[in-house]
Amino acid sequence: MVFFRHRCGKIRLRSAYVDAALTVSVSELARTTPRHFSSSSSISPASGAVSSDDAAAAQRAQKDNSDWNSDGHSRFRRTDCGESGGLNAIGSVRDSGSEQEQDFGSVNVDEESEDEENVDNEEGDGSEDDSFPAGWGPFKNSSEGRYVDQRAEGMEGEYRHPLVRETCRLIQLHSTWDPKLESKLRHLLRSLKPRQVCAVLRSQQDERVALRFFYWADRQWRYRHDPIVYSTMLEILSKTKLCQGARRVLTIMGRRGIKRPPEVFRCVMLSYSRAGKVRDALRILTLMQKAGVDPDLSVCNTVIKVLIENERLEKAFKFMERMQIVGMMPDVITYNCLIKGLCDVHRVQDAVELIDMMPAKDCSPDKISYYTVMDFLCKDKRIQEVKDMMEKMVRYSKLVVDQVTYNHLIHVLSKHGHGDEALEFSRESERMGFRIDTVRASAIVHSFCKVGKMDKAKELVQEMFAKGCIPDVVTYTAVINGFCRVGKVDQAQKLLQQMYRHGLKPNTVTYTALLTGLCRNGNSLEAKKMIDVSEENWWVPNAITYGAVMHGLRRENKLSEACDVAREMMKKGFLPTPVDINLLLQSLCHEGRVDEAKKFMEECLNKGCAINVVNFTTVIHGFCRRDKLEAALSLLEDMYLSNKHPDVFTYTTLIDSLAKKGRIEEATELAVNMLKRGLLPTAATYRTVIHRYCELGRVEELLLLLEKMLLRQKCRTAYNQVIEKLCIFGNLEAAQNLLGKVLRTASKEDANTCHVLMQSYMSGGFALSAYIVACRMFRRNLIPDSKLCERLSKRLATEGKKEEADKLMLLFVERGCAVAQS
């Protein structure tokens, strides 16, 4: 049975017996006629043609099931990213909206309706095996399907093109989009060449904005993306986790008849891998099979890389074996990925054996192969084995141990804190005739400074001078920071002056290290003076510099000066973080300067700092500690006016302070208001409410409030806490009445609560009441504490209640308790 299907300009012929499809698209028919309008067209429409373009665009948008508003400005139907973003060939594995694509201006920029179709037809059924599809044989040797890099050299010039810069400027205004700006951008789009469109995409700092522009441009009339634009977009997405967008771009290419080289599939695979969707990434191979594209060696290497990065080393080796079976021989990149995977799981010896086996496979190891193993050996300080690998590299692989090799080893050893071993390799390289350079020496100096070996670091700096290798700013900064960390700030200041004598200009990092050392030594005022004269010394403090001095003054309890530094910091355009602000607020409140803390917080809020609910809660807590409840409640209202909604900790602080002052009605009203706002009480909230209400003996109000709180957030030990607090405050009758709520669960916590009540009864001289509690515990299959019951039995016998004492012991005997029997 044969039937026809027509959808979005495509005619598909399907047969129930023949698994084939013939697709005739509008884009294919357009290739047979002259292309008057393309992405590289330089024809600029006249002013009178703009309206006709908009009208034609409206007609095309209606054809694409798009919506239009009353002013003629296009608003395309929004499609959720999770509808077609996953790989349907893998069953139920789909993305769950990890990419929330937003409007590009007033236009939604998802792909056309024809691209929203389910992709099962293109992918087929996925295999569970993380390897090549079972039906694939040897790869073709023809050049068909191979990726040809269409990016011409000299792309740097395109970024500076006026059209590219103006387009990027308009894209940045997407938050204030209107029809006029869209029309202008549409006009620019038709004048852009494909390479310039690529430059626009690469110029976007946010890849999601680039993707939205790509979708928006693809919907415009008289414009179609060039294949190089698709490849560029996929290359950009391959460096992100936007796997759904990459999958959609790949789908659009297939449905428009654009040739898809292996490279574009590799980009999608990398995007899925970055998003943590390993199975989706590997099933791109199945998608390539359905598309009739043979993977090249770079795709296979990417598969191995994905497997290794996701800790599937054994499958990576199986995949390499499968490569060889189908006729694709691994290269040195393939082996290097496997070597890296073996080293990651600490199988360094297996990695060495793999290197030794490579020549037999007609693949000689390169320096990266040896460097990978030597890096892990250096990390574990296995110096002799590193030297053995260097000897192998020369003897068997005929590779030269040059200065790059020594520099690499020195940097790795220095990075892991093995400065002495790094210095030994540096000496060896000098004996072989390689000169010491500043970068290598700075790495060793920094390694010594990190562990506090300042004598060796200083000695190495002097040695650099003697050998004609003048230390640079980085070297001096490392030594200055090292001296400051060990408390020798005077030595750091001498080095700073020495830098000036040698013609080196300290930078912001150098001064920040010195100022941090001064603040640690209690000389924060001196550090503040250095900031004040920074312009005279031709350096500019940054946010880290101001923060170090501000917290140094705070630790020295110079809070006014610390606030002044924060104000100067905001004046220079550096906004302190909410954590920095909160530390200052806590210090001010601790000193009783709550009004100053409130004023400082308001200043930060007016300057645009990200004041959050924690900052408000800190000041509210300060007011509550000073018994200024009216000011605290007023600040709570200010939070709502500032659109900073209080959290459960804010309410708990106020409830505790109100109840402490006996204002139970207000505390109850505040707690109910907290529950109405959807805030769930925490364990601290329960402890606070129970303590304050039991302290005042307001048991009935407490029980009513607890019922409302427990409906919103369960707390299994709430009534246990109530009974224990009532026992502490001597309200034993109310505690006895609540015992039934505790004995419903018969847990260990319930037994402890009963013990507290029994001890309270015994301390008050009510041994019979304690006996009743013990009997109720036995009826709930809870065994009371044997020592406590022995004391209770003696107390009962002393008070003449011998029958109850004997019965209590008999209950222990019936439960088989040996201590009670004796």
UniProtKB/TrEMBL annotation:
PPR repeats lie at residues 261-295, 296-330, 331-365, 402-436, 437-471, 472-506, 507-541, 542-576, 577-611, 612-646, 647-681, 682-712. Residues 109-131 have a biased composition (Acidic residues). It holds the Pfam family PPR. Coiled coil: none annotated. InterPro entries: PPR_P_subfamily, PPR_rpt, TPR-like_helical_dom_sf. Residues 33-145 are annotated as: Disordered. Residues 61-81 have a biased composition (Basic and acidic residues). Keywords: Repeat. NCBIfam families: PPR (TIGR00756). This is Pentatricopeptide repeat-containing protein At3g22470, mitochondrial-like. The lineage of its organism: Eukaryota, Viridiplantae, Streptophyta, Embryophyta, Tracheophyta.
